[in-house]
Amino acid sequence: MNFEIDPSFGKLRDMIGFLGRERLRPLGLEADALGGPLPPEHPFFQEVLDMGLTGGFMGKSPKERTDDDGRARRTIRRAVVMAEEAAYWDRGMATSLPGPGLGGAPVMIMGTPDQKERLLGPFKDRSQPRWSAFGMTEPGAGSDVARIRTRFQEDGDDFVVNGEKVFISNGARASFVVCWGTVDPTAGRKGHRALVVEAGTPGFEVAKIEKKMGLCASETASLVFQDCRVPKANLLQADTDGGSFKGAMKTFDMTRPMVAAMAVGIAQAALDEATRFADENFTGPSAWRRTRVEDRLSRCRGKVEMGRLYAWKAAWLGDHKKPNAVAASMAKAACAPIALEVASLGMEILGEAGGACDHLIEKLYRDVKALDIVEGTGQIQRIVIARRLLGYEGERHE
Amino acid sequence: MDFALSQDEQMILESASEFANRFLRDSVRDHEREGSLEPGVWSGFEAAGLGMLAEPVADPEMELGWPIRCLALARLAAVDGPSAFALWMGDWVPRVSALLGGDGRPKAFQLVREIDTMQWPLPCLPMMGGESVLVVDMSGCWGVARVEATQVRALGMAAAGPARCELVEWEARGQAEPDLLASILAQARIWVASVLVGMSRGSMEYTHGYIQERVAFGKALAQHQGVAFMAADMSIRCEGAEMLLCRAGWGMDSGDDTVVMGSYAEAVEAALWVTDTGVQLLGGHGYMKEHPVEKWMRDARAISLIWGGVDLALETERFLAGGAA
Fold first, then answer.
1. How far is C-alpha A244 from the geometric centre of its chain's CA atoms?
2. Using CB atoms and an 8 Å cut-off, which of residues 223-252 of chain A contact chain B?
3. Chain A CA closest to residue B230
4. pLDDT, tens digit, for every residue of A2-49?
5. Deepest of A15, A211, A318, B43, by most Cβ within 10 A of its Cβ?
6. Cβ contact (<8 Å) for B261 and A291?
């Protein structure tokens, strides 16, 4: 056992730390005051590319990748450490970083070499920022992805897409959206497919950008597809029945540890801020209060460290190609509530000052709630765990 | 970042499980009733080579880190916490006493605020059948007390021989160096945390098995979502507490005790919740002594109070950090 962060991650982590302190945190607060994301033209995004940084997964497919020294790859572990670092400074801004991100992951997992080259290749060009998006959720189908109604109808060499997607991160600025839909609504999961819809395709429109309680720096869009023609060449893993759905689930095994790590990053930020505030304010005559606060901060420090281990373990298993669905769900289910608890304690320590929207902890408290919802709610994580450990079969229907 | 166990480490855990299954599992209730372990258990423990895992100063040639020693104790405690604790203390306390400069007789340990103002008798302390207690206070004062021990009925930890202790006389007194004191306190806490982590896992595994068998309203309990979620939470909490225990131990390997307090507090909280949930999910059966879950619940509550519990640990931390106690 070894709980040291791989020294080879240090340089990248330092860069994210620098970017975080100088840009992510201040810009995140700016976006929060604004109530919405920075526009894609904002010079910050080009700055990020010029620094050589990118959001989400990058480089070779996790499937192909092994390190030169023959050791297990460290891709997910690296991603988890970086996700924590970026979210420490601002999770909303971290999600807005240009790069293949969430839409890139399914292309890497399910795409053909040609598709990877065509769709992910442009991201190597750093002369302009690019994003991609993952379009699963619909107004009537959230966690229950089997209820997806977006229709893919075959017509010659194309699919005709009709449907609606909601809560899509970077959906309005993405150069492509991996859109989940069905070729046969009566076939349940077996009818599901993942289709890459490129920006500018006629019939694909952005309906609105959501206003949210937190994570304002992250763009959350509603998308509408109306008789939108997409070439069949954009279908991911077309041959396998039900394969697309499994592909989506496999994506989660990689991304859930990252979301957990982001929650840990927010928790650590709240803990540091709360500790700083307590050190500055609870001295002298309020010693009793200080003692109580110290005890609770001490308890939270332990929980944050434990949260980090959940995320690391899931990442470590993934890197070693061992089943990590349970560990990923545990990480996701455990870390978000820990982060909310720490942020909430931070609010108590701020006292009445916490009620005003001018303190970082207040923003963290709003931001972090999202992490118990995105990438599968806490309830869904428990369903996944119960299925795997106890053979729980409820909520399973074709 | 690596969660893997080496082959040697896996073998140690296997022999711990093997010992627990052979010597503890079938006599859990006997040990509880008698308030002590059969002599064969003690000799079996030493014969299995497990005693050396409880050494306060590990043999450098063994190259066994704290994480694996903690996990081994947890494996024993997953079968029976009180017996595991008794066996472990039987090796650890005499050696700590000797390290401090006392004799090697005490099997019982007690942490107090201040040795000079401590209250005798001690109402309920696991004595492992011994007659002397190693007492250490927050400032590092220590003493070995010869006591008159009268076994008491106790909430839990009965196999470790909980007794009311009257002071007969102090046989040795001294002052521990700060580093040694810190190390002893960290060890005491991480051992308790290990026992709690093991008991939590024992309760979780038993409960998970039960709810997959027991049928209500036409399907196994585990197929009811309310039950399934509670069961999932049991595994989440067990996993977290166990990882944090390993993390704390890993820090101790390089002389860093900073995660131990967090691990201890987490182990207590998780064990109280998990063992209670075990009883809850078994319903009426959980409350009966036919099943072990009620015992795990009582034992978890009892051992998490030992040596002042989380409260005194926090106070000690603050005291050692130079703050007001």
1. 20
2. none
3. A382
4. 999 999 999 999 999 999 999 999 999 999 999 999 999 999 999 999
5. A318
6. no
Neighbouring-strand partners of residue B145: B133, B170
Note the pLDDT of residue A64.
43
Contact yes or no for B42/B87 (Cβ under 8 A): yes
DSSP-assigned letter for residue A356? S
Percent of chain A residues topping a pLDDT of 70:
91
With H, G, I as helix, E, B as strand and everything else as coil, classify residue A241. Answer: coil
Q: What residue type is A240 in one-letter code?
A: T
Structure tokens at B157: 């930890």
The span from the CA of B193 to the CA of B216, in Å, is 35
Helices (H) and strands (E) in chain B, counts: 10, 7
If you average pLDDT over residues A73-93, what whole number do you get?
Answer: 93
Contacts of A141 (CB under 8 A, 6+ apart): A147, A148, A149
Whole-angstrom Cα distance, residue A30 to residue A44? 13
In Å, what is the CA distance from B179 to each residue of B111, B139, B254? 16, 11, 13
- The two tokens of residue B122 are 């001690």
Higher pLDDT, A101 or B39: B39
Q: Which residues have CB under 8 Å from B67's CB, separation 6+? A: A1, B245, B246, B249, B250, B253
Q: How far apart are CA A270 and CA A89, in angstroms?
A: 10
A101 close to A170: Cβ distance less than 8 angstroms: yes
Chain A partners within 8 Å of B261 (Cβ): 298, 302
Given a contact cutoff of 8 angstroms between Cβ atoms, the answer to whether A291 and A284 are in contact is no
Distance CA A340, CA A274 (A): 13
The residue in chain A having the minimum alpha-carbon distance to the alpha carbon of residue B312 is A295
State the Cα angle at A49 between A43 and A53, rounded to 5°: 130
- Tell me the average pLDDT across A322-329: 95
CB neighbour list of residue A285: distance below 8 Å, 6 or more residues apart: none
DSSP E strand boundaries for A156-252: 158-169, 174-182, 192-198, 204-209, 220-231, 235-236
Provide mean pLDDT across the span A153-172.
96
Q: What is the ipTM of this complex?
A: 0.91
Q: What are A133's strand-pairing partners? A: A177
Written as one string, the DSSP assignment of A104-128 is: HHHHHHH--HHHHHHHHGGGG-TTS
The residues on B that touch A, with CB distances below 8 Å, are 1-5, 65, 67-68, 208, 211-212, 222-225, 228-229, 231-233, 235-236, 239-241, 243-244, 246-247, 250-251, 259, 261-263, 265-266, 314, 317-318, 323-324
| pLDDT single digits (tens) B139-174 | 999 999 999 999 999 999 999 999 999 999 999 999
pLDDT, tens digit, for every residue of A90-137? 999 999 999 988 788 888 888 899 999 999 999 988 999 999 999 999
Instruction: Give the CA count within 13 Å in the CB-facing half-sphere of B65.
Output: 22
C-beta neighbour count of B11 within 10 angstroms: 11
* Inter-residue contact A28 to A90 (CB < 8 Å): yes
Give all strands (DSSP E) within A237-310, no chain letters.
none
Tokens, residue A140: 């009537």
- For A255-290, letters b (16+ CB in 10 Å) and e give bbbbbbbbbbbbbbbbbebbbebbeebbeeeeeeeb
